[in-house]
């Protein structure tokens, strides 16, 4: 393919899309990024960038800016219904849950946008409604009626990607893992600290409250359920479900329930993985969550988005034909995706016990893992700031080829 002023349309201005645009523009492509929202979507929860993903942000010259925008979280505490700490995992511990590169989703989106806006064209408030492919072009129709022609189209959208459906129909499998999660931003109060707090309640429910760098806190509430219909409810109906599920949970139950009612930015969805037998169709394809969402349970969604964008742009830069670039990309990327999407045995069920005894077991096990002997043993087998998946993907230096 190589650049030669080739026009590329990227749909989605979250993380994968701007990262892809960064590298494509660097290699000389003419890139347009479209976003369904009328502006950047700067909400969302904490993200962490690990291993290969962090290496790529370093290559982009953005690592220091990302680290400077960290949430200030110093680790994770498991607490009981009386807010007493059962276990603590500090950020510098071998078993730490908090990454040094812990950043709010909106802050990362803004950093990526500012790093690309001078070399990439952004168009907000539009989305693709029809795609017509030829041998040498992709004709796209947008919701405002305009039609444009591109050499390539890449969907960098979310799990519910509409562009993916236009390209592949029902072929990709959206695999629901039996867990629902709600995220929202709430006011900070006296019980909140720089620690993230995890509370496990009977009835297969978990609440997590995490600090941010904006004077508020980020709350999440998850529960196990096989009821697929919750995903299709209206916003008010979903809030009703959340309040029903929160009822009787204890700890910060009343606080979270109150905020569900008054908050206009509650994101509630079923946790799902995307398994697609194909990522490309002709001159079009998909990356990020649209193609291979691993779920937040893996902690690797952001890293997959960044790595996938870097590799796809690199393969397009060094191949004459887009088909060869797509094939080379998939050969590198799919084994990494398959590895990341393997959830540990018992996830998410073990972390969401049904009984009070199960809750006690979770807190006891957390306490054992957080104990000084366990930390010492872990340090013998783990290097600081190293991610276990880091070396499972090769990151070529495309600029030297």
TrEMBL record:
One Pfam family linked to the record: FAD_binding_3
Tagged with keyword Oxidoreductase: yes
FAD-binding domain location: 7-340
Bias-annotated ranges (Basic and acidic residues): 382-395
Gene3D superfamilies, per database record: D-Amino Acid Oxidase, subunit A, domain 2, FAD/NAD(P)-binding domain
Keywords (A to Z) from UniProt: Monooxygenase, Oxidoreductase
Region (Disordered): 382-401
Molecular-function GO terms, alphabetical: FAD binding; monooxygenase activity
Alphabetized InterPro entries for the sequence: FAD-bd, FAD/NAD-bd_sf, FAD_aromatic-hydroxylase
Stretches of the chain forming a coiled coil according to its record: none
Domain of life: Bacteria
Listed name of the protein: FAD-binding monooxygenase
Organism the protein comes from: Pedobacter antarcticus 4BY
